[in-house]
Amino acid sequence: MASWLACLLLLGAVHARHEQYEGHHLYRVWGATPIIGSLEDKLDFLSATPAAISTSKQLEVLIKLSPKEKEQWLPYFLENGLDFKLVSDNLANILRAEESQLVQASEEADNNSTITWDAYYNSETIFKYIDEIGEKYPDIVTVVNAGLSYEGRQIKYVKISTNRFENLRKPVIVIDAGVHAREWVTSPVALYLIDQLVTGADKELLDEIDWVIIPLANPDGYEYSINEDRLWRKTRSKSHEGSDECPGVDGNRNFDFYWGTRPAASNPCSIIYEGPSAFSEPEIRVIRDAVLENLPRTALYISLHSFGNMFLYAWGHNASLPSNGLVLHLAGVRMATAIDRLKLEEDTPYTVGNAAQVLYFTSGTSRDWTRSVGIPLTYTMELPGYEYGFLVPPTYIKQIITESWAGLAEGARYVINNYYH
Ligand SMILES: *[C@@H]1O[C@H](CO)[C@@H](O)[C@H](O)[C@H]1NC(C)=O
Ligand SMILES: *[C@@H]1O[C@H](CO)[C@@H](O)[C@H](O)[C@H]1NC(C)=O
Ligand SMILES: *[C@@H]1O[C@H](CO)[C@@H](O)[C@H](O)[C@H]1NC(C)=O
Questions:
Q1: The domain spanning residue 45 has which CATH number?
Q2: Is 45 in the pocket of ligand 3 (CB under 6 A)?
Q3: What distances in angstroms separate CA 295 from CA 189, 281, 316, 376, one per listed residue?
Q4: Distance 367 CA to ligand 3 centre (A)
Q5: Which residue of 111, 112, 115 sits with most ligand 1 atoms within 8 Å of its CB, as the best mutation to test the pocket?
Q6: pTM exceeding the 0.85 threshold for the entire prediction
Q7: Looking at the predicted structure, is the pLDDT value of residue 114 above 90?
Q8: Residue 5 burial (CB < 10 Å; 0-12/13-18/19+)?
Q9: Residue range(s) defining the domain that contains residue 61
Q10: N or C: which end of the chain has fewer CB within 10 A?
């Protein structure tokens, strides 16, 4: 806590890191899905969601435009029949406002436990908390030191089981978070899931399922998002050509499923750069190996992302459904309904659907790869961003972890009823 606070204050004082976004505008842009989709590699989509008020197929995206990009793109939007609305004329101000809130939240948080549910923490504190959980619940929790990130941080995750993964009749559920660096609120959701399981909030889910939970898959990117560029999304690797200018890989394009099939993802400077080869990123290999370890009995995989209130299922590289598309939809709707019951009144309900149909085509995603290697239920789960996008204020963490736990618990019950051997 103290180190987190010190870190924020220090950085605020010594270098104003949000300056790079001084004068950048934030726009909401909506229109025909194919046109919006074609911009994915050219502009930084802060979010993409089906447009709320449409009968035909429309997408709405939140994008940032530098003054130069604005000159180039606004005419393009007009010419192509896209609607747009200015959300903010200075992104740097939004980031500064977020930062002062974060400082306040960490001052107000109580100091009795390492982490609380009303602040964000740096990677060191998150990994320390994971170790503490392991020490406190040695009978059910195994902390895995899974390997080093590109910059050398030990990636830790937990396995939770009442019989050390030795009862082969039990289904396994794998959850990851923090693949995209700037999506901070995903880690608290994973950590809260761990907390609920080990403290016995739902005995059945602890007893009948073996859990693999990876709360912070991309610590390098996360630290970079805290310290240097709040909007950083990728890893921080520099093993590809062009990495001096454009380091990092989009972890959720780095999986070996139709990897390398979309030219849009092959440019190192693109926000969706897929990497020099499938599984080039050590952080993504950690997820791959955790998934493969118990593959035959793994029934559900969820990758936590932010934001947009969606459960997206395969496929993403084409718009057809896997053979169990109906079941994927049904289980997704169950989870979504459980969340919607607890959501904030003003928030939109979850959308459940095929990734390519709801949004646009993607290749190399964890959701598609995990489905392709045989896990029946695999989803990308986009948490709420309200009007803040991924700058979700810490005051909303409790809401998001509580409603998401309800959704994940419902998914787990579905798994027990349908996949217990
Ligand atoms: C928690 O500790 C920090 C210093 O470590 C202190 O500034 C803060 O006031 C404390 N918060 C409470 C609620 O005691
Ligand atoms: C922190 O711990 C102290 C001493 O154990 C206790 O009196 C206090 O109520 C706790 N504070 C919170 C916010 O839990
Ligand atoms: C979409 O991809 C899946 C998985 O590779 C494949 O089985 C299916 O035939 C493809 N559908 C179309 C319409 O190409």
A1: 3.30.70.260
A2: no
A3: 23, 21, 21, 11
A4: 15
A5: 111
A6: yes
A7: no
A8: middle
A9: 23-89
A10: C
